[in-house]
Amino acid sequence: MMNKILVVDYEKCTGCRNCEMACSVFHVHVNNPTKSAVRIVKWERAGLDVPIICQQCEEPACASICPVRAISRDADTGALAVDYDLCVGCRMCMVACPFGAVTFDVDRRQVIKCDLCGGVDPWCVRFCEPRALTYRLPAVVSMDKKRAAGRSLLEALTPRNRRVHTQQI
Known about the structure:
About 30% of the residues lie in helices and about 20% in strands. The chain is α+β, with helices and mostly antiparallel strands.
């Protein structure tokens, strides 16, 4: 089975935080961004809002470092999920994640990590109005990137651009 991946286009993010709200409502039934697996990080100087979310790594540092093997890949969805019956709350997965995508819920005393909402229709994607988050097949994402690169190259090679370039030589 080919699993979809969560794709983040930070340039489209408006900082509305709908993704954070949707995630917390889906998982813990409260509208509380601190209980969300997706976090919006504001980069004020750059004027950007960047969604930070688990990238479901092929070789996940969070799962590798877990001393009780509480993080494993779901066979159906491909998502890395936390087995809270095994998790001891040591937070080593938080330390190991290179993206800072694993957080901790102090009230429930457990780590928060994206599980793709069961892998069918992640709520963060469903409620992302600017479409900064999408859930797509990897082959489609790759083809879109190739097309964008081709368009950029074609644009750079248009006759108008070539004339400007030759005049500068």
